[in-house]
UniProtKB/TrEMBL annotation:
InterPro entries: DUF1005 (IPR010410). It comes from Dillenia turbinata. Residues 209-227 have a biased composition (Low complexity). This is Formin-like protein 18. Residues 228-239 have a biased composition (Basic and acidic residues). Residues 203-240 are annotated as: Disordered. Pfam families: DUF1005.
Length: 453
């Protein structure tokens, strides 16, 4: 089955040149000491903000310089159709960028930055799902002209669109209800996986799924190595597990809660200092092997949401020798949900540091089912960076049927896709695991009465 066409529109290599006046003046901007930033807007998409570095006016911007990402927009086929609009009644599509000097943020409800100028880049996205297109690459004058002279401020940017095909999967129901998972391609829905939710609890072996009853004993060692099954006093949610099976019934991935979600002393919430965690495992060499680890907690303060951190576990002689690599860390709004995303675009900073995709690429799956036909994951280690996956998560109390997108570069076989499906299920279940303990969970998530909150 073919993947769905997607386009990645990226804005990169932004920079600003402003000659420093020889005589101080109140109206002159001194960017060497004043920070700059820009706001990037594409029709119908959320506004994105990025820092704009200043470079001396005598410097040149090398075309061979490493691409630094300022913003990116992920466009599905439906998005492309909407953006195309009706040519007789809609204006030509443009990417709009406003450049500011001063610090980002607001003071007393007023933006603290001062507008320097605006840039508009015309876009024609026709055919971009098939070939790359560069819409602009170079310098452009910004700011107001004075006394008939051209603006001395120069803004550099690179705007391009690239094909970014993805596999799209959707859960038929909520993960705790053991749903089927469909692959979506246009109007075609094809079942590819089934999920089995269960309790992995030392006190109740009978509720474990059939696939986990036959798991190799060595996998228990992995679970104890990465988490804790010890009994803890107080409020906790523990032992959840979801196993992904292919259509033949064979287990191809699992997400297991290895550290209980425990309420902090004197509160009803899981704290960042003591998060719960999941281990995402894949089959290999007659056992389960760790692939990734997801930590989750409930954020405090004005942003009440689900905080999370996902790290990849390199497969080196059993996976214990190399340090895990953090690929995603962010927050999802508890009330309205959001998108869990792994996107290492253009060497963009992840948690304050640049993370190359080749350093994070796992080895090929031990099973070569190759059902998806895009054997690029083990060979893309030096192909650069980009989108990896995203999963839509609903807010608390809402019916959640997660939809996830996975780049074809990272799906070599069924087990690759199943690992991302298990991760999406773990993210969705973490929204429930991190609910305030004063709130009740649905019956499918409760093994004993003390888990009701």
């Amino acid at each position: 089955m073919d993947p769905c066409p997607f386009v990645r529109l990226s804005v990169g290599n932004v920079a600003l040149k402003i000659p420093v006046a020889s005589k101080p003046a109140r109206s002159v901007v001194h960017p060497s000491s004043s920070p700059c930033f820009c706001k990037i807007k594409l029709k119908n998409f959320p506004l994105q903000t990025a820092v704009v570095p200043y470079i001396p006016s005598e410097s040149h911007f090398s075309n061979g310089q490493v691409q630094t990402l300022a913003a990116s927009f992920h466009l599905s086929k439906l998005d492309l159709e909407k953006l195309a609009g009706k040519p007789f009644f809609s204006k030509k599509l443009c990417l709009k960028i406003a450049i500011y000097t001063g610090r980002r943020g607001t003071t007393c409800g007023v933006n603290s930055g001062r507008l320097l100028g605006r840039v508009s880049v015309p876009l024609d996205l026709t055919g971009t799902e098939l070939k790359s297109t560069v819409f602009y690459n170079g310098w452009i004058a910004v700011g107001k002209e004075e006394a008939g002279k051209r603006s001395s401020a120069q803004f550099h940017l690179n705007v391009k669109a690239e094909p970014d095909p993805r596999f799209v999967f959707q859960f038929e129901g909520e993960p705790e209800c053991s749903p089927q998972v469909f692959q979506i391609q246009g109007n075609i829905r094809q079942p590819v996986f089934t999920c089995k939710f269960s309790f992995r609890n030392t006190g109740d072996r009978n509720q474990r799924s059939r696939s986990l009853q036959s798991e190799p004993s060595s996998s228990r060692g992995w679970l104890s190595s990465f988490g804790s099954e010890r009994e803890r006093p107080g409020k906790e949610r523990k032992g959840w597990s979801i196993t992904v099976h292919d259509l033949s019934g064979s287990p191809v991935a699992t997400a297991s809660m290895v550290t209980p979600f425990v309420a902090s002393p004197g509160s009803d919430r899981v704290s960042r200092s003591n998060p719960g965690s999941w281990l995402i495992l894949r089959p290999g060499d007659g056992t389960w092997k760790p692939w990734g680890r997801l930590e989750a907690w409930r954020e405090r303060g004005s942003t009440d949401g689900l905080g999370y951190r996902f790290e990849l576990i390199p497969d080196t002689n059993g996976g214990m020798g190399a340090a895990a690599i953090v690929l995603a860390e962010s927050t999802l709004a508890a009330s309205r949900g959001g998108k869990f995303m792994i996107d290492l675009g253009g060497g963009a900073a992840v948690n304050g540091r640049t993370t190359p995709m080749n350093a994070a690429s796992p080895v090929c799956s031990p099973r070569s089912s190759g059902d998806f036909g895009y054997g690029l994951w083990p060979y893309c280690m030096y192909r650069g960076f980009g989108f990896v996956m995203s999963a839509a998560v609903q807010g608390e109390g809402k019916c959640s049927k997660p939809t996830l997108e996975v780049s074809v570069q990272h799906v070599n076989c069924t087990e690759d896709a199943a690992a991302f499906v298990a991760l999406a299920a773990a993210v969705d279940l973490s929204m429930d695991a991190c609910r305030l303990f004063s709130q009740k969970l649905r019956k499918e998530l409760c093994q004993t009465q003390d888990l009701l909150g």
